[in-house]
């Protein structure tokens, strides 16, 4: 098993590049699409900007900031963690963990949570940044832990889901799942409610666990591996899960996007899709950034595509986010694109970071927060 895991880890970065939309069977890879001109309808105004250390670092990290109340928390790959006033960017506290942070940030119930490449989970006090506890788990943590105030749930690269006591960090339970032979580098962040901890696995399954004991409540397969080679059979759920009302939205690589009933895992609808970044939801539609670089708007009720914009082909898109009446998505050259929710046309564009954008944008009220690969964190509003 150890040899399989080593092979799997050696292929992670290559598969992350593959996820950008390149075909392993292509004799000549197509370049990223050139940006096209359009009539600008929306102009973004920078409210504040701050540097967060080294940002995403040189490996394929997805260090997404987190917002809780009036505070935004961000971390870089070297372990610098900063808490800022989300309205003006003023620093409330700063902590240097001196550890290779790879899964950040989870926040809630007075805790700031993150994981490391060394398989550690660290909990800081949200108001002061002081360390409350540190726990060792089975392997590297590439997505932010989540908490309901009673248990902290973390998903590791080896497809284990672990429940830790929120007060002490002591392990309460462990759900063990056999990972796929090959996988993209990363895992989706788990979701936690009072009763359920939900995680997407590298095998294309979604599992819901009882938060008290880790016993599975339900398990649903979203994607079925297909193809002759292990590369063709990669069906990771890496883009994270989206909970809206009682519905859970999920997308897999080389598989499907689907809506599930949270309490039962019953599939409400599904359609073919390939995404490694995830989905957004708003105004009766679900928005997905496909691995090819196409952005789609899908009607929740009929599951038909309302619109499709392929002008960002092969530009390694972030997960989409709903911002006002628009869909926001970033790309590898650091541009933030705004698309109309109605028909998918471009309405605005702003370059944030020349080193690129990888982390999902965050939206609270009338402000969007964008964290660039180099460490530039910007807050923007619509003029």
Automatic annotation (TrEMBL):
The keyword Membrane applies. It comes from Pseudomonas batumici. GO terms for cellular component: cell outer membrane. This is Outer membrane protein assembly factor BamB. The gene is bamB. It is found in: Cell outer membrane. Part of the outer membrane protein assembly complex, which is involved in assembly and insertion of beta-barrel proteins into the outer membrane. Keywords: Cell outer membrane, Lipoprotein, Membrane, Palmitate, Signal. Part of the Bam complex. HAMAP family: OM_assembly_BamB. Gene3D superfamilies: YVTN repeat-like/Quinoprotein amine dehydrogenase. InterPro entries: BamB (IPR017687), PQQ_b-propeller_rpt (IPR018391), PQQ_rpt_dom (IPR002372), Quinoprotein_ADH-like_sf (IPR011047), WD40/YVTN_repeat-like_dom_sf (IPR015943). Belongs to the BamB family.
């Amino acid at each position: 098993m150890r040899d399989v895991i080593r092979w799997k880890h050696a292929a992670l970065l290559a598969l992350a590049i593959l996820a950008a939309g390149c075909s392993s069977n292509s004799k000549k890879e197509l370049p990223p699409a050139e940006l096209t001109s359009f009539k600008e309808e929306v102009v973004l105004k920078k409210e504040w900007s701050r540097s967060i250390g080294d940002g995403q670092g040189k490996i394929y990290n997805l260090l997404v900031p987190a917002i809780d109340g009036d505070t935004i928390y961000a971390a870089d790959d070297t372990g610098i963690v900063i808490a800022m006033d989300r309205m003006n960017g003023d620093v409330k506290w700063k902590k240097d963990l001196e550890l290779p942070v790879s899964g950040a940030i989870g926040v809630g119930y007075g805790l700031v949570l993150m994981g490391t490449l060394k398989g550690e989970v660290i909990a800081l006090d949200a108001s002061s940044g002081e360390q409350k506890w540190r726990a060792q788990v089975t392997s590297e943590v590439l997505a932010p832990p989540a908490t309901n105030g009673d248990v902290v749930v973390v998903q590791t690269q080896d497809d284990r889901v672990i429940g830790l006591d929120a007060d002490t960090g002591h392990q309460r339970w462990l759900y063990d799942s056999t990972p796929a032979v090959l996988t993209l580098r990363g895992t989706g962040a788990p979701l936690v409610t009072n009763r359920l901890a939900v995680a997407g696995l590298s095998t294309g399954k979604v599992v819901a666990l009882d938060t008290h004991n880790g016993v599975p409540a339900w398990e649903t397969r979203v994607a079925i591996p297909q193809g002759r080679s292990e590369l063709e059979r990669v069906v990771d759920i890496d883009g994270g899960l989206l909970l809206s009302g009682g519905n859970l939205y999920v997308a897999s690589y080389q598989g499907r996007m689907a809506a599930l009933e949270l309490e039962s895992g019953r599939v409400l609808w599904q359609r073919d899709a390939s995404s490694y970044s995830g989905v957004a939801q708003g105004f009766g539609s679900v928005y997905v950034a496909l691995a090819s670089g196409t952005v789609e708007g899908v009607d929740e009720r009929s599951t038909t595509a309302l619109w499709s914009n392929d002008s960002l082909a092969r530009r390694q898109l972030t997960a989409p986010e709903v911002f006002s009446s628009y869909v926001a998505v970033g790309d590898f050259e650091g541009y933030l694109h705004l698309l109309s929710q109605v028909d998918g046309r471009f309405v605005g564009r702003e370059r944030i970071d020349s080193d690129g954008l990888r982390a999902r944008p965050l939206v609270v009220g009338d402000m969007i927060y964008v964290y660039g690969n180099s460490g530039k964190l910007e807050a923007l509003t619509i003029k």
